[in-house]
Design brief:
The chain is 25% helix and 24% strand. The chain has 13 helices and 27 strands. The radius of gyration is 31 Å and the shape is elongated. The N terminus is likely disordered.
Length: 557
Amino acid sequence: MEQEKVTKNFIEQEIDKDLAEGVYDSVCTRFPPEPNGYLHIGHAKSILLNYGLAKEYGGKFHMRFDDTNPTKEKSEFVDSILADIKWLGADWQDNLFFASDYFGQMYEAAVKLIKKGKAYVSDLTADQIREYRGTLTEPGKKDPYSDRSIEENLTLFENMKNGMYPDGSKVLRAKIDMTSSNINMRDPILYRVAHLSHHNTGDAWCIYPMYDFAHPIEDAIEGITHSICTLEFEDHRPLYDWVVRELEYPRPPRQIEFAKMYLTNVVTGKRYIKKLVEDGIVDGWDDPRLVSIAALRRRGFTPESIRMFVELCGVSKANSSADYAMLEYCLREDLKLKKSRIMAVLDPIKLVIDNYPEGQTEMLEAANNMENPDLGTHQVPFERELYIEREDFMEEPPKKYFRLFPGNEVRLMHAYFVKCVGFEKDEAGNVTVVHCTYDPATKAGSGFTERKVKGTIHWVPVHSAVKAQARLYENIVDEEKGVYNEEDGSLNVNPDSLKVAENCYIEPAIQGAKAYDSFQFVRNGYFCVDYKDATDENLVFNRIVSLKSSFKLPKQS
Protein backbone atom coordinates (compact mmCIF):
# COMPACT_ATOMS: atom_id res chain seq x y z
CA MET A 1 0.00 0.00 0.00
CA GLU A 2 2.84 2.38 0.85
CA GLN A 3 4.48 1.67 -2.52
CA GLU A 4 1.22 2.54 -4.33
CA LYS A 5 1.17 5.98 -2.67
CA VAL A 6 4.71 6.70 -3.74
CA THR A 7 4.05 5.93 -7.39
CA LYS A 8 0.96 8.14 -7.66
CA ASN A 9 1.32 11.75 -8.77
CA PHE A 10 0.12 14.60 -6.56
CA ILE A 11 -3.19 14.96 -8.43
CA GLU A 12 -4.04 11.29 -7.92
CA GLN A 13 -3.17 11.64 -4.24
CA GLU A 14 -5.55 14.62 -3.93
CA ILE A 15 -8.33 12.72 -5.70
CA ASP A 16 -7.79 9.71 -3.41
CA LYS A 17 -8.09 12.01 -0.41
CA ASP A 18 -11.31 13.62 -1.70
CA LEU A 19 -12.90 10.22 -2.33
CA ALA A 20 -11.79 8.85 1.04
CA GLU A 21 -13.22 11.88 2.86
CA GLY A 22 -16.50 11.73 0.97
CA VAL A 23 -16.07 15.12 -0.73
CA TYR A 24 -17.03 13.35 -3.97
CA ASP A 25 -18.36 9.86 -4.59
CA SER A 26 -17.12 9.69 -8.19
CA VAL A 27 -14.73 11.45 -10.55
CA CYS A 28 -15.60 13.61 -13.54
CA THR A 29 -12.93 15.49 -15.52
CA ARG A 30 -12.97 17.56 -18.69
CA PHE A 31 -10.77 18.97 -21.44
CA PRO A 32 -11.98 22.53 -22.19
CA PRO A 33 -10.13 24.13 -25.14
CA GLU A 34 -11.05 27.46 -26.68
CA PRO A 35 -11.77 26.87 -30.40
CA ASN A 36 -9.46 29.68 -31.53
CA GLY A 37 -6.66 27.63 -33.11
CA TYR A 38 -5.20 24.17 -33.53
CA LEU A 39 -4.08 22.14 -30.53
CA HIS A 40 -0.35 21.49 -30.06
CA ILE A 41 1.82 18.92 -28.29
CA GLY A 42 1.43 20.74 -24.96
CA HIS A 43 -2.34 20.23 -25.07
CA ALA A 44 -1.80 16.49 -25.48
CA LYS A 45 -0.62 16.33 -21.88
CA SER A 46 -3.81 17.94 -20.59
CA ILE A 47 -6.02 15.77 -22.80
CA LEU A 48 -4.35 12.53 -21.77
CA LEU A 49 -4.12 13.54 -18.10
CA ASN A 50 -7.79 14.44 -17.79
CA TYR A 51 -8.95 11.41 -19.77
CA GLY A 52 -6.53 9.12 -17.95
CA LEU A 53 -7.78 10.24 -14.53
CA ALA A 54 -11.41 9.66 -15.50
CA LYS A 55 -10.54 6.22 -16.80
CA GLU A 56 -8.38 5.33 -13.79
CA TYR A 57 -11.18 6.13 -11.34
CA GLY A 58 -14.02 4.68 -13.41
CA GLY A 59 -15.48 8.14 -13.90
CA LYS A 60 -16.60 10.36 -16.75
CA PHE A 61 -14.61 12.47 -19.19
CA HIS A 62 -16.20 15.51 -20.82
CA MET A 63 -15.15 17.21 -24.01
CA ARG A 64 -16.20 20.84 -23.74
CA PHE A 65 -15.46 23.87 -25.89
CA ASP A 66 -14.93 27.08 -23.91
CA ASP A 67 -16.37 29.15 -26.73
CA THR A 68 -17.09 32.44 -24.94
CA ASN A 69 -15.02 34.68 -27.23
CA PRO A 70 -16.52 34.94 -30.74
CA THR A 71 -13.75 37.27 -31.97
CA LYS A 72 -11.34 34.39 -32.68
CA GLU A 73 -13.42 31.22 -32.73
CA LYS A 74 -14.25 29.19 -35.84
CA SER A 75 -16.03 25.94 -36.66
CA GLU A 76 -12.81 24.90 -38.46
CA PHE A 77 -11.02 24.86 -35.11
CA VAL A 78 -13.85 22.90 -33.47
CA ASP A 79 -13.57 20.20 -36.13
CA SER A 80 -9.78 20.00 -35.93
CA ILE A 81 -9.80 19.76 -32.11
CA LEU A 82 -12.35 16.93 -32.12
CA ALA A 83 -10.27 15.05 -34.70
CA ASP A 84 -7.12 15.49 -32.61
CA ILE A 85 -8.68 14.26 -29.38
CA LYS A 86 -10.28 11.27 -31.07
CA TRP A 87 -6.94 10.39 -32.68
CA LEU A 88 -5.17 10.53 -29.30
CA GLY A 89 -7.66 7.97 -28.02
CA ALA A 90 -9.57 10.09 -25.50
CA ASP A 91 -13.20 8.93 -25.68
CA TRP A 92 -15.77 11.47 -24.50
CA GLN A 93 -18.63 9.11 -25.50
CA ASP A 94 -21.78 11.27 -25.59
CA ASN A 95 -20.34 13.93 -23.29
CA LEU A 96 -19.67 16.68 -25.86
CA PHE A 97 -20.56 20.17 -24.62
CA PHE A 98 -20.19 23.83 -25.54
CA ALA A 99 -19.94 26.68 -23.06
CA SER A 100 -22.25 28.60 -25.40
CA ASP A 101 -24.98 26.05 -24.63
CA TYR A 102 -25.03 27.52 -21.11
CA PHE A 103 -25.25 31.21 -22.06
CA GLY A 104 -28.79 31.40 -20.71
CA GLN A 105 -27.77 29.87 -17.38
CA MET A 106 -24.74 32.15 -17.18
CA TYR A 107 -26.94 35.18 -17.71
CA GLU A 108 -29.22 34.05 -14.89
CA ALA A 109 -26.17 33.43 -12.69
CA ALA A 110 -25.06 37.03 -13.30
CA VAL A 111 -28.53 38.27 -12.40
CA LYS A 112 -28.34 36.26 -9.18
CA LEU A 113 -25.06 37.95 -8.26
CA ILE A 114 -26.57 41.38 -8.94
CA LYS A 115 -29.53 40.57 -6.70
CA LYS A 116 -27.10 39.50 -3.95
CA GLY A 117 -25.27 42.80 -4.28
CA LYS A 118 -22.21 40.95 -5.61
CA ALA A 119 -22.09 42.44 -9.14
CA TYR A 120 -22.63 45.83 -10.74
CA VAL A 121 -22.64 47.52 -14.15
CA SER A 122 -19.72 49.89 -14.75
CA ASP A 123 -19.34 52.62 -17.37
CA LEU A 124 -15.56 52.88 -17.02
CA THR A 125 -13.57 52.48 -20.23
CA ALA A 126 -11.06 49.65 -20.61
CA ASP A 127 -8.19 52.07 -19.93
CA GLN A 128 -9.91 53.42 -16.83
CA ILE A 129 -10.56 49.92 -15.51
CA ARG A 130 -6.86 49.13 -15.89
CA GLU A 131 -5.97 52.37 -14.12
CA TYR A 132 -8.41 51.81 -11.23
CA ARG A 133 -7.28 48.19 -10.88
CA GLY A 134 -3.89 49.15 -9.47
CA THR A 135 -0.69 47.14 -9.80
CA LEU A 136 0.95 44.18 -8.18
CA THR A 137 2.39 46.53 -5.55
CA GLU A 138 -0.39 49.13 -5.30
CA PRO A 139 -4.04 48.45 -4.36
CA GLY A 140 -6.88 49.30 -6.71
CA LYS A 141 -9.36 52.17 -6.37
CA LYS A 142 -13.09 51.87 -5.90
CA ASP A 143 -15.10 51.92 -9.13
CA PRO A 144 -17.34 55.03 -8.98
CA TYR A 145 -20.25 52.96 -10.36
CA SER A 146 -19.98 50.21 -7.76
CA ASP A 147 -22.63 51.82 -5.52
CA ARG A 148 -25.43 51.62 -8.08
CA SER A 149 -28.59 50.11 -6.66
CA ILE A 150 -29.56 46.52 -7.33
CA GLU A 151 -32.60 47.72 -9.32
CA GLU A 152 -30.49 50.02 -11.51
CA ASN A 153 -27.92 47.28 -12.14
CA LEU A 154 -30.64 44.80 -13.11
CA THR A 155 -32.10 47.29 -15.59
CA LEU A 156 -28.72 48.20 -17.07
CA PHE A 157 -27.68 44.57 -17.40
CA GLU A 158 -30.93 43.67 -19.15
CA ASN A 159 -30.42 46.62 -21.48
CA MET A 160 -26.91 45.33 -22.22
CA LYS A 161 -28.43 41.98 -23.17
CA ASN A 162 -31.03 43.68 -25.35
CA GLY A 163 -28.37 45.43 -27.43
CA MET A 164 -29.00 48.99 -26.24
CA TYR A 165 -25.32 49.90 -25.75
CA PRO A 166 -22.34 49.93 -28.11
CA ASP A 167 -19.30 47.69 -27.68
CA GLY A 168 -17.02 48.74 -24.83
CA SER A 169 -19.51 51.15 -23.27
CA LYS A 170 -20.50 49.01 -20.29
CA VAL A 171 -19.32 45.89 -18.45
CA LEU A 172 -20.65 43.84 -15.58
CA ARG A 173 -18.12 43.52 -12.74
CA ALA A 174 -18.03 41.31 -9.68
CA LYS A 175 -18.08 43.25 -6.42
CA ILE A 176 -15.30 41.69 -4.35
CA ASP A 177 -12.31 43.68 -3.06
CA MET A 178 -10.39 46.42 -4.91
CA THR A 179 -7.63 46.25 -2.28
CA SER A 180 -7.05 42.49 -2.54
CA SER A 181 -3.43 41.35 -2.80
CA ASN A 182 -4.63 39.08 -5.63
CA ILE A 183 -5.22 41.37 -8.58
CA ASN A 184 -7.70 38.87 -10.07
CA MET A 185 -10.06 39.56 -7.16
CA ARG A 186 -10.22 43.33 -7.74
CA ASP A 187 -13.76 43.46 -9.10
CA PRO A 188 -13.07 41.35 -12.22
CA ILE A 189 -15.18 41.82 -15.34
CA LEU A 190 -17.88 39.15 -15.71
CA TYR A 191 -19.61 40.29 -18.94
CA ARG A 192 -18.78 42.63 -21.82
CA VAL A 193 -20.82 44.02 -24.70
CA ALA A 194 -19.79 42.57 -28.08
CA HIS A 195 -22.10 42.75 -31.10
CA LEU A 196 -20.55 39.73 -32.81
CA SER A 197 -21.95 36.65 -34.47
CA HIS A 198 -21.03 33.44 -32.63
CA HIS A 199 -20.11 30.19 -34.42
CA ASN A 200 -22.64 28.24 -32.31
CA THR A 201 -25.34 30.71 -31.19
CA GLY A 202 -25.31 33.06 -34.19
CA ASP A 203 -26.68 36.52 -33.31
CA ALA A 204 -28.70 35.42 -30.27
CA TRP A 205 -26.39 37.28 -27.88
CA CYS A 206 -24.63 40.63 -27.92
CA ILE A 207 -23.06 40.21 -24.46
CA TYR A 208 -20.57 37.48 -23.69
CA PRO A 209 -19.24 36.15 -20.36
CA MET A 210 -15.55 36.35 -19.49
CA TYR A 211 -13.61 33.10 -19.20
CA ASP A 212 -13.01 33.39 -15.43
CA PHE A 213 -16.75 33.71 -14.84
CA ALA A 214 -17.93 31.17 -17.39
CA HIS A 215 -15.49 28.38 -16.66
CA PRO A 216 -16.45 27.57 -13.05
CA ILE A 217 -20.15 27.74 -14.01
CA GLU A 218 -19.60 25.26 -16.84
CA ASP A 219 -17.78 22.90 -14.49
CA ALA A 220 -20.51 23.17 -11.86
CA ILE A 221 -23.36 22.63 -14.34
CA GLU A 222 -21.70 19.50 -15.74
CA GLY A 223 -20.84 18.04 -12.36
CA ILE A 224 -17.09 18.20 -12.88
CA THR A 225 -15.38 17.12 -9.67
CA HIS A 226 -11.77 18.01 -10.41
CA SER A 227 -11.00 20.90 -12.73
CA ILE A 228 -7.45 20.08 -13.76
CA CYS A 229 -5.67 23.05 -15.33
CA THR A 230 -2.19 24.50 -15.81
CA LEU A 231 -0.22 26.62 -13.36
CA GLU A 232 -1.05 30.02 -14.84
CA PHE A 233 -4.57 29.57 -13.43
CA GLU A 234 -3.32 29.13 -9.85
CA ASP A 235 -3.80 32.85 -9.09
CA HIS A 236 -7.29 32.63 -10.60
CA ARG A 237 -8.38 29.84 -8.25
CA PRO A 238 -9.72 32.22 -5.55
CA LEU A 239 -12.01 33.77 -8.20
CA TYR A 240 -13.05 30.30 -9.41
CA ASP A 241 -13.96 29.34 -5.84
CA TRP A 242 -15.73 32.70 -5.27
CA VAL A 243 -17.98 32.18 -8.30
CA VAL A 244 -19.12 28.65 -7.39
CA ARG A 245 -19.54 29.64 -3.73
CA GLU A 246 -21.58 32.79 -4.39
CA LEU A 247 -23.77 30.96 -6.88
CA GLU A 248 -24.37 28.27 -4.23
CA TYR A 249 -23.78 25.19 -6.32
CA PRO A 250 -24.46 22.11 -4.17
CA ARG A 251 -21.31 20.18 -5.09
CA PRO A 252 -18.70 22.72 -6.17
CA PRO A 253 -15.86 21.47 -8.35
CA ARG A 254 -12.27 21.69 -7.16
CA GLN A 255 -9.52 23.29 -9.25
CA ILE A 256 -6.06 21.64 -9.18
CA GLU A 257 -3.11 23.04 -11.16
CA PHE A 258 -0.16 21.24 -12.75
CA ALA A 259 2.87 22.37 -14.71
CA LYS A 260 2.65 22.78 -18.48
CA MET A 261 4.73 20.61 -20.76
CA TYR A 262 7.31 22.74 -22.56
CA LEU A 263 9.28 21.39 -25.50
CA THR A 264 12.67 22.79 -26.48
CA ASN A 265 13.19 24.58 -29.80
CA VAL A 266 9.63 24.37 -31.10
CA VAL A 267 6.98 26.95 -32.02
CA THR A 268 3.65 26.64 -30.22
CA GLY A 269 2.45 30.27 -30.08
CA LYS A 270 -0.63 30.77 -32.24
CA ARG A 271 0.51 34.26 -33.26
CA TYR A 272 3.79 32.90 -34.65
CA ILE A 273 2.20 29.91 -36.38
CA LYS A 274 -0.39 32.21 -37.96
CA LYS A 275 2.44 34.37 -39.34
CA LEU A 276 4.28 31.30 -40.69
CA VAL A 277 1.08 30.30 -42.48
CA GLU A 278 0.32 33.79 -43.81
CA ASP A 279 3.91 34.29 -45.02
CA GLY A 280 3.80 30.99 -46.91
CA ILE A 281 6.73 29.51 -44.96
CA VAL A 282 4.51 26.56 -44.01
CA ASP A 283 1.51 25.23 -45.90
CA GLY A 284 -0.99 25.38 -43.04
CA TRP A 285 -1.53 24.65 -39.36
CA ASP A 286 -0.83 20.99 -40.11
CA ASP A 287 2.52 21.51 -41.86
CA PRO A 288 4.69 18.56 -40.70
CA ARG A 289 7.39 20.92 -39.39
CA LEU A 290 5.04 22.21 -36.71
CA VAL A 291 4.06 20.53 -33.45
CA SER A 292 0.32 21.02 -33.65
CA ILE A 293 -1.31 17.65 -33.08
CA ALA A 294 -2.69 17.79 -36.63
CA ALA A 295 0.86 18.38 -37.94
CA LEU A 296 2.28 15.50 -35.92
CA ARG A 297 -0.48 13.21 -37.21
CA ARG A 298 0.16 14.29 -40.81
CA ARG A 299 3.89 13.74 -40.41
CA GLY A 300 3.32 10.18 -39.20
CA PHE A 301 3.55 10.35 -35.41
CA THR A 302 1.49 7.78 -33.54
CA PRO A 303 -0.87 8.29 -30.58
CA GLU A 304 1.11 5.63 -28.72
CA SER A 305 4.37 7.56 -29.08
CA ILE A 306 2.78 10.76 -27.76
CA ARG A 307 1.23 8.89 -24.83
CA MET A 308 4.65 7.41 -24.00
CA PHE A 309 6.23 10.87 -24.18
CA VAL A 310 3.60 12.38 -21.86
CA GLU A 311 4.09 9.54 -19.37
CA LEU A 312 7.87 10.03 -19.38
CA CYS A 313 7.43 13.77 -18.75
CA GLY A 314 5.26 13.03 -15.73
CA VAL A 315 2.97 15.33 -13.74
CA SER A 316 4.39 17.91 -11.37
CA LYS A 317 3.98 21.39 -9.92
CA ALA A 318 7.33 22.60 -11.24
CA ASN A 319 7.73 24.00 -14.76
CA SER A 320 10.32 22.21 -16.86
CA SER A 321 11.25 21.61 -20.49
CA ALA A 322 11.50 18.33 -22.33
CA ASP A 323 13.99 17.76 -25.11
CA TYR A 324 12.43 17.31 -28.56
CA ALA A 325 14.85 14.41 -28.98
CA MET A 326 12.90 12.56 -26.27
CA LEU A 327 9.72 12.85 -28.32
CA GLU A 328 11.59 11.39 -31.30
CA TYR A 329 12.96 8.62 -29.06
CA CYS A 330 9.40 7.65 -28.07
CA LEU A 331 8.41 7.64 -31.73
CA ARG A 332 11.25 5.32 -32.76
CA GLU A 333 10.49 3.00 -29.87
CA ASP A 334 6.89 2.72 -31.01
CA LEU A 335 7.62 2.28 -34.72
CA LYS A 336 10.58 -0.08 -34.69
CA LEU A 337 8.64 -3.32 -34.22
CA LYS A 338 5.49 -2.25 -36.07
CA LYS A 339 6.64 -1.08 -39.46
CA SER A 340 7.75 -2.97 -42.54
CA ARG A 341 11.21 -2.16 -43.83
CA ILE A 342 11.49 -1.63 -47.54
CA MET A 343 14.20 -0.29 -49.81
CA ALA A 344 13.92 3.24 -51.19
CA VAL A 345 16.58 5.28 -53.00
CA LEU A 346 16.24 9.02 -52.43
CA ASP A 347 19.14 10.30 -54.58
CA PRO A 348 19.52 7.70 -57.33
CA ILE A 349 22.28 6.74 -59.74
CA LYS A 350 22.05 3.71 -61.96
CA LEU A 351 24.00 0.52 -61.26
CA VAL A 352 24.40 -1.96 -64.13
CA ILE A 353 25.49 -5.53 -63.46
CA ASP A 354 27.36 -6.26 -66.67
CA ASN A 355 27.43 -10.06 -66.34
CA TYR A 356 23.80 -10.47 -65.23
CA PRO A 357 21.59 -11.83 -68.04
CA GLU A 358 19.71 -9.11 -69.91
CA GLY A 359 15.93 -9.39 -69.59
CA GLN A 360 16.13 -11.74 -66.61
CA THR A 361 14.24 -11.04 -63.38
CA GLU A 362 14.35 -13.16 -60.26
CA MET A 363 12.33 -12.76 -57.08
CA LEU A 364 14.28 -12.48 -53.85
CA GLU A 365 12.86 -12.85 -50.35
CA ALA A 366 13.17 -9.92 -47.93
CA ALA A 367 12.16 -9.81 -44.28
CA ASN A 368 9.54 -7.15 -43.52
CA ASN A 369 11.11 -6.45 -40.14
CA MET A 370 14.20 -8.30 -38.98
CA GLU A 371 13.44 -7.47 -35.33
CA ASN A 372 9.88 -8.77 -35.61
CA PRO A 373 9.60 -12.02 -37.61
CA ASP A 374 5.82 -12.02 -37.12
CA LEU A 375 5.55 -9.34 -39.83
CA GLY A 376 6.65 -11.94 -42.38
CA THR A 377 8.44 -11.43 -45.69
CA HIS A 378 7.88 -10.05 -49.17
CA GLN A 379 9.37 -10.57 -52.62
CA VAL A 380 11.68 -8.08 -54.35
CA PRO A 381 12.37 -8.31 -58.11
CA PHE A 382 16.10 -8.34 -58.96
CA GLU A 383 17.41 -7.46 -62.42
CA ARG A 384 20.44 -6.28 -64.38
CA GLU A 385 19.74 -2.53 -63.88
CA LEU A 386 19.24 -1.11 -60.41
CA TYR A 387 19.16 2.24 -58.65
CA ILE A 388 21.46 2.85 -55.69
CA GLU A 389 22.05 5.92 -53.50
CA ARG A 390 24.50 8.39 -55.01
CA GLU A 391 26.40 8.50 -51.72
CA ASP A 392 27.01 4.74 -51.95
CA PHE A 393 29.58 5.21 -54.72
CA MET A 394 32.77 7.30 -54.66
CA GLU A 395 35.38 7.55 -57.37
CA GLU A 396 38.11 8.39 -54.84
CA PRO A 397 36.95 7.25 -51.40
CA PRO A 398 38.41 8.32 -48.07
CA LYS A 399 39.72 5.78 -45.58
CA LYS A 400 37.10 3.57 -43.91
CA TYR A 401 34.67 4.03 -46.78
CA PHE A 402 33.31 0.52 -47.31
CA ARG A 403 30.76 1.06 -50.03
CA LEU A 404 31.26 0.99 -53.80
CA PHE A 405 34.40 2.34 -55.43
CA PRO A 406 36.52 1.03 -58.30
CA GLY A 407 37.75 -2.48 -57.45
CA ASN A 408 35.72 -2.80 -54.22
CA GLU A 409 33.11 -5.44 -53.51
CA VAL A 410 29.90 -5.01 -51.46
CA ARG A 411 26.75 -6.97 -50.81
CA LEU A 412 23.51 -5.80 -52.38
CA MET A 413 20.96 -6.22 -49.59
CA HIS A 414 18.93 -9.47 -49.88
CA ALA A 415 20.88 -10.29 -53.09
CA TYR A 416 24.48 -10.84 -54.26
CA PHE A 417 28.03 -9.59 -53.90
CA VAL A 418 28.91 -7.10 -56.65
CA LYS A 419 32.29 -5.66 -57.56
CA CYS A 420 32.74 -2.22 -59.12
CA VAL A 421 34.48 -2.47 -62.51
CA GLY A 422 33.84 1.02 -63.90
CA PHE A 423 31.58 4.05 -64.13
CA GLU A 424 30.30 6.69 -66.54
CA LYS A 425 30.11 10.48 -66.20
CA ASP A 426 28.14 13.20 -67.92
CA GLU A 427 29.66 16.36 -69.46
CA ALA A 428 29.55 18.13 -66.09
CA GLY A 429 31.63 15.40 -64.48
CA ASN A 430 28.77 13.84 -62.50
CA VAL A 431 28.71 10.06 -62.18
CA THR A 432 25.61 8.73 -63.97
CA VAL A 433 26.18 4.97 -64.15
CA VAL A 434 28.20 2.52 -62.05
CA HIS A 435 29.22 -0.78 -63.64
CA CYS A 436 29.64 -3.94 -61.59
CA THR A 437 29.91 -7.68 -61.94
CA TYR A 438 28.17 -10.12 -59.61
CA ASP A 439 29.11 -13.50 -58.18
CA PRO A 440 26.15 -15.91 -58.58
CA ALA A 441 27.50 -18.08 -55.74
CA THR A 442 27.00 -15.30 -53.18
CA LYS A 443 23.20 -15.16 -53.20
CA ALA A 444 21.79 -14.14 -49.81
CA GLY A 445 20.69 -17.15 -47.79
CA SER A 446 22.87 -19.54 -49.79
CA GLY A 447 25.29 -20.06 -46.91
CA PHE A 448 28.22 -18.61 -48.87
CA THR A 449 31.25 -18.11 -46.54
CA GLU A 450 34.26 -18.12 -48.86
CA ARG A 451 34.93 -14.42 -48.42
CA LYS A 452 33.39 -11.50 -46.57
CA VAL A 453 32.65 -7.89 -47.45
CA LYS A 454 32.52 -4.90 -45.13
CA GLY A 455 29.75 -2.97 -46.87
CA THR A 456 26.09 -3.67 -47.61
CA ILE A 457 24.01 -1.23 -49.68
CA HIS A 458 20.36 -1.13 -50.62
CA TRP A 459 18.90 -0.86 -54.12
CA VAL A 460 15.69 -0.94 -56.14
CA PRO A 461 15.02 -2.43 -59.60
CA VAL A 462 14.93 0.20 -62.36
CA HIS A 463 12.06 -1.22 -64.39
CA SER A 464 9.57 -1.94 -61.61
CA ALA A 465 10.46 0.69 -59.01
CA VAL A 466 7.76 3.14 -57.98
CA LYS A 467 8.69 6.79 -58.38
CA ALA A 468 7.69 9.07 -55.49
CA GLN A 469 8.49 12.34 -53.76
CA ALA A 470 10.12 12.27 -50.32
CA ARG A 471 10.07 15.29 -48.03
CA LEU A 472 12.86 15.51 -45.48
CA TYR A 473 12.07 17.72 -42.50
CA GLU A 474 14.26 19.45 -39.98
CA ASN A 475 13.30 21.82 -37.18
CA ILE A 476 11.42 24.89 -38.45
CA VAL A 477 13.50 27.12 -36.18
CA ASP A 478 17.25 27.70 -36.24
CA GLU A 479 18.41 25.79 -33.15
CA GLU A 480 21.79 27.52 -33.03
CA LYS A 481 20.21 30.99 -32.88
CA GLY A 482 17.30 29.92 -30.66
CA VAL A 483 13.59 30.06 -31.39
CA TYR A 484 13.15 33.84 -31.13
CA ASN A 485 15.23 36.82 -32.19
CA GLU A 486 16.11 38.73 -29.02
CA GLU A 487 16.01 42.13 -30.75
CA ASP A 488 12.51 42.09 -32.24
CA GLY A 489 10.96 38.83 -31.00
CA SER A 490 10.63 37.41 -34.53
CA LEU A 491 11.17 33.75 -35.30
CA ASN A 492 14.60 32.50 -36.35
CA VAL A 493 13.46 30.34 -39.25
CA ASN A 494 15.68 27.52 -40.47
CA PRO A 495 15.97 27.91 -44.28
CA ASP A 496 16.78 24.19 -44.60
CA SER A 497 13.76 22.95 -42.64
CA LEU A 498 12.39 21.23 -45.77
CA LYS A 499 14.32 19.40 -48.46
CA VAL A 500 12.53 17.50 -51.20
CA ALA A 501 13.77 14.38 -52.97
CA GLU A 502 11.79 14.67 -56.21
CA ASN A 503 13.15 11.47 -57.80
CA CYS A 504 12.80 8.92 -55.06
CA TYR A 505 12.49 5.30 -56.24
CA ILE A 506 10.93 2.63 -54.03
CA GLU A 507 10.68 -1.12 -54.46
CA PRO A 508 7.30 -2.21 -55.90
CA ALA A 509 6.03 -3.52 -52.54
CA ILE A 510 5.02 0.09 -51.84
CA GLN A 511 2.24 -0.06 -54.45
CA GLY A 512 -1.20 0.45 -52.93
CA ALA A 513 0.05 2.56 -50.01
CA LYS A 514 -2.64 4.93 -48.74
CA ALA A 515 -2.69 8.15 -46.72
CA TYR A 516 -1.08 7.77 -43.27
CA ASP A 517 0.49 4.38 -44.15
CA SER A 518 4.03 4.37 -42.81
CA PHE A 519 7.19 2.34 -43.43
CA GLN A 520 10.83 2.25 -42.60
CA PHE A 521 12.90 3.12 -45.66
CA VAL A 522 16.11 1.19 -45.09
CA ARG A 523 18.90 3.49 -43.82
CA ASN A 524 16.82 6.62 -44.55
CA GLY A 525 14.31 6.71 -41.71
CA TYR A 526 10.59 6.24 -41.16
CA PHE A 527 8.25 7.70 -43.77
CA CYS A 528 4.50 8.28 -43.96
CA VAL A 529 2.22 8.81 -46.97
CA ASP A 530 1.07 12.45 -46.90
CA TYR A 531 -2.71 12.65 -46.60
CA LYS A 532 -2.96 16.05 -48.28
CA ASP A 533 -0.78 15.83 -51.39
CA ALA A 534 -0.37 12.12 -52.21
CA THR A 535 -2.49 10.43 -54.88
CA ASP A 536 -2.61 6.86 -56.18
CA GLU A 537 -0.58 7.99 -59.20
CA ASN A 538 1.85 10.28 -57.36
CA LEU A 539 2.98 9.12 -53.94
CA VAL A 540 4.31 11.75 -51.54
CA PHE A 541 6.09 10.72 -48.34
CA ASN A 542 6.92 12.72 -45.23
CA ARG A 543 9.95 11.62 -43.26
CA ILE A 544 8.59 11.02 -39.77
CA VAL A 545 11.95 10.66 -38.08
CA SER A 546 15.48 9.58 -38.94
CA LEU A 547 16.84 6.27 -37.67
CA LYS A 548 19.67 7.48 -35.46
CA SER A 549 19.50 9.38 -32.21
CA SER A 550 21.96 10.36 -29.53
CA PHE A 551 19.15 10.59 -26.95
CA LYS A 552 19.19 8.15 -24.06
CA LEU A 553 16.71 7.87 -21.24
CA PRO A 554 18.21 8.90 -17.90
CA LYS A 555 18.91 5.98 -15.58
CA GLN A 556 16.34 5.42 -12.87
CA SER A 557 17.72 5.98 -9.39
